Amino acid sequence: MKSPASIVAQMLACDDFSTWLGIKILKVNLEEVVLTLEVQEIHTNGFKIAHGGICYALADTCLAFVSNSYGYKAVSVETSISHFTKVYAGDQLVATSKLVYKGNSSAVYMVEIENQNKTIVAHFKGTVRISKELW
Description:
By secondary structure, the chain is of the alpha+beta class. Helix content is 24%, strand content 43%. The protein has helices at 4-13, 16-21, 52-68; strands at 24-28, 33-38, 72-83, 92-102, 106-114, 120-134. The chain has a six-stranded antiparallel β-sheet. The longest helix has 17 residues, at 52-68.
């Protein structure tokens, strides 16, 4: 079976959207993935703050990587996000996943997103369906 790090590296290599956003891998374990993203001007909306989709995309990528790191292909079936504070161009975001529940065919994760000041900017919850298909 492939290692969690090799699965995540393979996923990122094929993930044009996350690569385009500038998402980088900081840490990969079975129950924890840590990603980072520097917010760019192109990521901002008409209020000159980061579009909500930026935090969502970072968290969703984190969910995808951690839920697939066990070696079985998994896809999200339900996600939600709560935004707590504004995010600006130049902010360095860090998304950290935490396993909440894992069964044979589903799992639930929380992803916390912090900025460079260790301020929590968003919480994301994701439920995934785990297949029997190996990576």
